[in-house]
């Protein structure tokens, strides 16, 4: 029996990994629309991430072959840096994340997407997705305890690890305020967490998953100032030592990004740091002025730049 234990344990681990990647994918689908079928090349190797540097090299993409979703998009996310995507609704922000996660493969002549210099079409999808953590706008929680929902990020996570991740995600104190603490049931048949709390569960889960690359989609809904501050703190923690690409709806949240990319109709129209873009006095500066004036005296009703 003891001899069986190792292989059975391994099988359990494989089942859990496959299951997890399916659930992660399902969550991402909710975030990123429907995928089309893509297949790994026969004998494709696994992606080995060392630095986690991302590069979009002259990417052109259309969903339907008629309308252009991305046109000549080139940028780099250097090792351990944070890049934020901003732009109006339909400007191509989610398409960039979808392509990096390989919901669609670029065809010949449509450019390349590289991680550590390796074309992502040439590696297995499973290894690519294992290297990427996703914090969606509206994470899906299981009808299970909070501990389970956080621990899902890492097979065999101990209670100490779960609590440390919840602490780093600014959620520990909130969890301890529930009568059943970490055993509190959440989801449809348990306590209903707020949008900001659910996002922090996803942040804690991703901390445990510990991927070198992050895709973040900021919630579009207005959050109260203290929740927004908590989430920002949690995200900054999560981003440390990783390369991240985030969709930002509220410009106030990306002042610390290493690079901000401004998209319009699928093209990059400006890029730089927050202060560089303000000095440029172009599209970003006018979006910023618009947002600042609309938030005067009503910070919880900041207008978001997607126009909702
Ligand atoms: P939002 O802020 O509203 O999420 P976005 O900047 O993320 O917008 P994308 O979702 O990347 O924009 O869309 C870019 C373009 O691609 C848009 O013109 C959109 O209509 C189109 N598009 C997006 N998804 C699909 C799809 N599944 N099929 C066809 N066209 C699509």
Mean pLDDT: 85
Structural class: alpha/beta
What percent of residues are in strands?
15-25%
In DSSP terms (H or I, runs of 4 or more residues), the helix count works out at 10
Bound molecules: adenosine-5'-triphosphate
Distance between the termini: 60 Å
Q: How many beta-strand segments? A: 10
Helix content: 25-40%
Using only C-alpha atoms, the radius of gyration works out to: 20 Å
Biggest sheet: strand arrangement? 6-7-8-3-9-10
Order of helices and strands: HEEEHEEHEHHHHEHEEEHH
Q: List unreliable stretches of 5+ residues.
A: 297-308
Tertiary shape: globular
Q: What is the makeup of the main sheet?
A: 6 strands, mixed
GO cellular component, one term: membrane
Family: Belongs to the ABC transporter superfamily. ABCB family. Heavy Metal importer (TC 3.A.1.210) subfamily.
Subcellular location: Membrane
Domain ABC transporter: 54-290
Concise structural overview:
It is found in: Membrane. About 40% of the residues lie in helices and about 20% in strands. It has helices at about 1-30, 95-100, 125-130, 145-150, 160-170, 170-175, 195-210, 225-240, 275-280, 285-295; strands at about 55-60, 70-75, 80-85, 110-115, 120, 130-135, 215, 245, 260-265, 265-270.
């Amino acid at each position: 029996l003891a001899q069986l234990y190792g292989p059975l344990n391994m099988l359990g681990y494989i089942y859990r990994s496959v299951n997890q990647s399916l659930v992660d994918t399902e969550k991402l689908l909710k975030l990123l629309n429907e995928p089309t079928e893509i297949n790994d090349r026969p004998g494709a190797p696994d992606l080995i991430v060392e630095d986690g540097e991302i590069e979009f090299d002259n990417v052109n993409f259309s969903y339907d072959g008629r309308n252009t979703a991305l046109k000549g998009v080139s940028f780099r996310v250097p090792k351990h840096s944070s890049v934020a995507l901003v732009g109006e609704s339909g400007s191509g922000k989610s398409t960039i994340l979808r392509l990096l996660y390989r919901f669609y493969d670029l065809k010949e002549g449509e450019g390349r997407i590289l991680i550590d210099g390796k074309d992502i079409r040439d590696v297995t999808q499973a290894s690519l997705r294992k290297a990427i953590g996703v914090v969606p706008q509206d994470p899906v929680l299981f009808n299970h305890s909070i501990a389970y929902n956080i621990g899902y990020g890492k097979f065999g996570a101990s209670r100490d690890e779960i609590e440390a991740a919840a602490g780093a995600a600014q959620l520990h104190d909130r969890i301890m305020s529930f009568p059943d603490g970490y055993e509190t049931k959440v989801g449809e048949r348990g306590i209903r967490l707020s949008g900001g709390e659910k996002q922090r569960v996803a942040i804690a889960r991703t901390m445990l998953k510990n991927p070198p690359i992050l895709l973040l989609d900021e919630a579009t809904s207005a959050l109260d100032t203290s929740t927004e501050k908590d989430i920002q703190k949690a995200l900054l923690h999560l981003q440390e030592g990783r390369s991240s690409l985030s969709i930002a709806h509220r410009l106030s949240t990306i002042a610390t990004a290493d690079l901000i990319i401004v998209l319009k109709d699928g093209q990059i129209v400006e890029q730089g740091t927050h202060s560089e873009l303000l000095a440029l006095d172009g599209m970003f500066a006018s979006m910023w002025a618009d947002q600042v004036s609309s938030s005067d005296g009503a910070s919880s009703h900041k207008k978001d730049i997607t126009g909702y």
